[in-house]
Write a structure and sequence with these properties.
Order of helices and strands: HEHEHEHEHEHEHHHE
CATH superfamily: NAD(P)-binding Rossmann-like Domain
Number of strands: 7
Mean pLDDT: 95
CATH class: Alpha Beta
CATH topology: Rossmann fold
Structural class: alpha/beta
Distance between the termini: 39 Å
Number of domains: 1
Strand content: 5-15%
Shape: globular
Largest sheet: 7 strands, parallel
Helix content: 40-55%
Number of helices: 9
Strand order of the largest sheet: 3-2-1-4-5-6-7
Length: 262
C-alpha cells in the first residue's frame, strides 16, 4: 500500500469501522481511501471505473487492509438509494461516509452553460446530500453513531473567476455540512468538512504546470508550496475517528495558510 510514503493516518483510529469513500479511484479520494484502510477501516471504494477501483483495492489488500469496490455513477441521483442498499448488502453496516467525488468546469460566468451548471450542482451537492440521507437513516433507526466528512474547498470561503458553478457548489457543501450537523447531532452523527487548498494531483496538473498560476499559488500560500495528498488525509481520518466525537458542523481548511493570507 506504500502508505508510509503517501499518507499520515492515525494508526488504529478507525479500527472496526467501515468507511465508504466516493471518488476513490484517483487523486485525493484514492489517498483518503488508502489512509482509512491503514487506520484500520474496511473501505468501500466508490467510483465510475471498475478497473481503477480494483487497482486501488488490490494495493490496499497488498498492504494488509480490507477493501471492496462498488462501481457506480453518482450523477444518476435517482439510483443512489438503490445503490446504497446494495452497498449495505455488500459491506454490511457503514459507519463512516466520506464524500470526495466532484467535478469542475471553467468558463466565464456570463457564458456558463446551464447544463454544466446543473451537472456540477448535482454531483457536488445533491449526490452528497442523498448519500448522507441514505447513510443516516439506518444508523438513526438502529440508534448507532456515525461520521460524515465532506470534501469542501477554498471556494467554500473564497472565490475565483471562471468557476461559478464549482464555487456555488462548494459554498453549498459548507452550509449543508452545518445544516446536517445541527439536525443530526441528537443522533450522534457528526458531520464535518475538510477544505483542501491547492494540492498537487493528476487532476490539478494543468494548474501546477502553468508557470504563472504556480507562482501565484506559491506567493499566496505562506508555506510556499502546493499540498501533497499526505498533507490532507490526517485531517480526514481525525474527523472520522472517535477523537472528533465532540466536533461537528466545522470546515477544517488544510491550505498551508492560503485563506489566512491577505
Amino acid at each position: 500500500m506504500n502508505a508510509s510514503n503517501e499518507s499520515k493516518p492515525l494508526r488504529g483510529a478507525l479500527q472496526g469501522k467501515t468507511a465508504l469513500v466516493t471518488g476513490a479511484s484517483r487523486g485525493l479520494g484514492r489517498s483518503i481511501a488508502m489512509a482509512c484502510a491503514e487506520s484500520g477501516a474496511k473501505v468501500v471504494l466508490l467510483g465510475r471505473v471498475p478497473s481503477t477501483l480494483e487497482a486501488v483495492a488490490a494495493e490496499i489488500r497488498q498492504g494488509g487492509g480490507e477493501a471492496c469496490c462498488f462501481p457506480c455513477d453518482l450523477s444518476d441521483i435517482e439510483e443512489i438509494p438503490r445503490n446504497y442498499e446494495q452497498i449495505l448488502s455488500l459491506a454490511g453496516e457503514v459507519n463512516v461516509l466520506i464524500n470526495v467525488a466532484g467535478k469542475n468546469f471553467r468558463v466565464a460566468a456570463v457564458d456558463f452553460p446551464l447544463d454544466e451548471w446543473r451537472s456540477i450542482l448535482d454531483l457536488n451537492v445533491t449526490a452528497p446530500f442523498v448519500l448522507s440521507q441514505c447513510f443516516a437513516k439506518p444508523l438513526i433507526a438502529a440508534g448507532k453513531p456515525g461520521k460524515i466528512v465532506n470534501i469542501a474547498s477554498l471556494m467554500t470561503a473564497a472565490a475565483r473567476p471562471m468557476i461559478p458553478a464549482y464555487s456555488a457548489s462548494k459554498g453549498a457543501i459548507g452550509l449543508l455540512t452545518k445544516a446536517l450537523a445541527v439536525e443530526w447531532a441528537q443522533y450522534r452523527i457528526n458531520v464535518n468538512a475538510v477544505g483542501p487548498g491547492y494540492f498537487k494531483t493528476e487532476l490539478t496538473r494543468p494548474l501546477w504546470e502553468d508557470r504563472a498560476f504556480d507562482e501565484w499559488v506559491l506567493e499566496k500560500t505562506p508555506m510556499k508550496r502546493w499540498g501533497e495528498p499526505s498533507d490532507l488525509v490526517g485531517a480526514v481520518v481525525f474527523l472520522a475517528s472517535s477523537a472528533a466525537d465532540f466536533i461537528t458542523g466545522q470546515v477544517l481548511y488544510v491550505d498551508g495558510g492560503w485563506l489566512a493570507h491577505i
